[in-house]
Design brief:
By secondary structure, the chain is α/β, with parallel strands linked by helices. The protein folds into 2 domains: 249 residues, Type I PLP-dependent aspartate aminotransferase-like (Major domain) (Aspartate Aminotransferase, domain 2); 134 residues, Aspartate Aminotransferase, domain 1, CATH 3.90.1150. It is 42% helix and 15% strand. It is built from 16 helices and 12 strands. A 7-stranded mixed sheet has the order 1-7-6-5-4-2-3, sandwiched between helices. Strands 8-9-12-11-10 form a 5-stranded mixed sheet. Helix 5 links the parallel strand 2 and strand 3. Helix 4 crosses helix 10 and helix 14 crosses helix 16. The longest helix has 20 residues. It binds pyridoxal-5'-phosphate (PLP).
């Protein structure tokens, strides 16, 4: 789709075409595991790659429903092609396996989603892949971390749950100089607010479970990159099989049609909530990339067009006070995950990031008092009123 077309129009139209068989306007759900060939020659040509087309749902391009979603996100991210997955973690695993081998070195942001941390800390070393967790908001530390065998730099920005921001363009440039692939987990921002490929990164991936699906009713992941990179990823998709279901692909297509509308509301609400919390006497600190008090606000401003709906804060009275707050909310749901229409509140140190060892959590800022909020699309006044009444009980 042409670049002159605006982002919201792309959300609605990119990748979509009327169904060629019956003319259905909405992309159909191709709930099938296999595809019929016209003859044996065509089957052989599809398997050899001589002829493009669908073969079997585990093998890219999976089904026409998956193709529409992959193309839509590729257009939104500004990449050549996309590949969908069963979850964000399946996407991250496939990207790592497509590129790294025994003896390679991976540099990762030190604050990443808990399961990403465990994958990198527990599983990759067993495969002979060395991992360095680095504070990627410190460019000198990133520069010093490169080794001869560094094959990949994995960035999560803003990072879950500290909201730390790192400079994608600068780090992608360093990675390129060292012949390493730069990969960005774009889950928190979505391509509406941040487009890593346009900033110089090689690969942008997201958990579709969050803002892309947008309604907390599915699990999914997506990877977007250059044709060259995607060609190296496709075989791994077929061999490992962590693909998205057709119904989930359809839900993501529907979710994306309102991505631009939802993200504006998420970000507008999050700023109001962040300002409310920052002024509240029972709150020790607030981290939201859109606040001037955020340590990397300048970098965020440079590379993001808005600051999304995620924020974290510390409450005076520490973990006990945080627990009382979470037990006292009525409108907000006490639940992990993020990017839903509904506001979600959780405690990373005992929930999503409990798998990160205590000393590491302390060092990187996943403190016991940290409460994470995924601000939904309700009316901001109601979210604030709920937090206000819960804070009165602390
Ligand atoms: C930043 C980030 N990346 C990846 C994931 C993993 O996504 P999924 O739960 O879809 O596997 C999560 C999950 O919370 C996340 O927050």
């Amino acid at each position: 789709m042409k670049d002159a077309i605006k982002f919201g129009t792309k959300c609605v139209h990119a990748g979509e075409k009327p169904d060629p068989v019956f003319g259905a306007h909405t992309t159909p759900i191709f709930q099938t595991s296999t595809f019929v060939f016209e003859n044996a020659g065509q089957g052989a040509a599809r398997f050899s790659g001589e002829e493009a087309g669908y073969v079997y749902t585990r093998i890219p391009p999976n089904t026409p429903t998956h193709s529409v979603l992959a193309e839509k996100v590729a257009v939104l991210e500004g990449g050549d092609a996309g590949q969908t997955f069963a979850s964000g973690m399946a996407a991250i695993t496939a990207v790592v396996l497509s590129r790294l081998k025994q003896g390679d070195h991976l540099i990762s942001t030190d604050v990443v989603y808990g399961c990403t941390y465990s994958l990198f800390r527990e599983v990759l070393p067993r495969l002979g892949i060395e991992v360095s967790f680095i504070d990627t908001s410190d460019l000198a530390a990133v520069k010093a971390a490169f080794k001869e065998n560094t094959g990949m730099v994995f960035l999560e920005t803003p990072a879950n749950p500290t909201m730390t921001v790192c400079d994608i363009g600068e780090i992608a440039c360093m990675a390129r100089e060292h012949g390493a692939l730069s990969v960005v987990d774009n889950t928190f921002s979505t391509p509406y607010f941040q487009r890593p490929l346009q900033l110089g990164a090689d690969v942008s991936l997201s958990s579709c479970t969050k803002y892309i699906g947008g309604h907390a009713d599915l699990l999914g992941g997506i990877v977007v990159g250059s044709l060259d990179f995607m060609r190296s990823l496709y075989p791994v998709v077929g061999y490992t099989g962590g693909i998205m279901g057709p119904h989930e692909a359809w839900l993501c297509i529907r979710g994306l049609k309102t991505l631009h509308l939802r993200m504006e509301r998420h970000a507008g609400n999050a700023l109001k909530v962040a300002e409310f919390l920052e002024a509240h006497p029972k709150i020790a600190w607030v981290r939201y990339p859109g606040l001037p008090s955020h340590p990397q606000h300048a970098v965020a401003k440079k590379q993001m067009s808005g600051y999304s709906g995620m924020l974290s804060f510390g409450i005076l009275g520490g973990v006990e006070a945080g627990r009382r707050l979470m037990d006292s909310v009525r409108l907000c749901s006490l639940a992990v995950s993020l990017g839903a229409t509904d506001t979600l509140i959780q405690h990373p140190a005992s929930m999503t990031h409990a798998c990160v060892p205590l000393d590491v959590r302390k060092r990187v800022g996943i403190t016991d008092d940290l409460v994470r909020l995924s601000v939904g699309v309700e009316d901001a006044e109601d979210i604030i009123a709920d937090l206000e009444q819960a804070l009165e009980k602390v």
